[in-house]
Amino acid sequence: MSLHLDYSGFKTLLLALALPPVPLLLLAAWGGWRLRHGRRAGGWMLGLALALAWLSATEAAGELLSRASGSPAALTRAQVEALKGRSDGAVLVLGGGVYRHLPEYDGGALKRPTAERLAYGVWLARRTGWPLAFSGGIGWTATELRQPEAEIVARVAAEDYALPLRWVESRSRDTRENAANSLPLLAQAGVKEVLLVTDDGHMRRALRAFEAAAAPLGLRIVPAPIGLRDDALGGFDDWCPSADGFSRVRNIVYETLAWWAGR
Asked: Is the pLDDT assigned to residue 103 strictly greater than 50?
């Protein structure tokens, strides 16, 4: 096996260095080195790194970061119910990754972010009566994929939810291409309002791209984020490390870096 550091590999390496826990491990190592050489500040640095490493794997930290990032509020049931009876809307779900092959399914399957987004998109589509769309191709770093994300999602939506997708956009490689490729399809079909489904960390960046692409088409974009919690700060376990907490913090840090980078 040979390693080839192409664009996707370079991007993966940069993300590995920028996302938790690597920066915190480096801070801890630096603090330990300074402490060993008799510098008191090293102890503070080491303690800070360990505290941040703990927090970076908690649901509470993920929720606080989500709120600080300015993610839109979740749609209320009343807001969803008010959309019933209209014929000019659509629910658009954005991709969050798929597996090329899982043996238990003997084929491609959805990664957790995509599965959660699709489940909520189906929930919205059934309660509003609006058709369902999905946007996602083969991402810049998803070099292992041979089948676009949207094709796998289309199969899952039809087979597992009995709700076929009305529109399938499978050429986009990132969020900006999601917007540029999917919105014209909806506009041509007479859609005027789009419920945009993605997770809370990604929503701010997605809204920037979609609102810019929607303006010339006369479309209105309504954020429909998932992943928000209103009970993630009160329990002791919310402040203890967990796989869910670590994943959420990493996702929000990643999305913040992507926002600053203008991606």
From this structure: yes
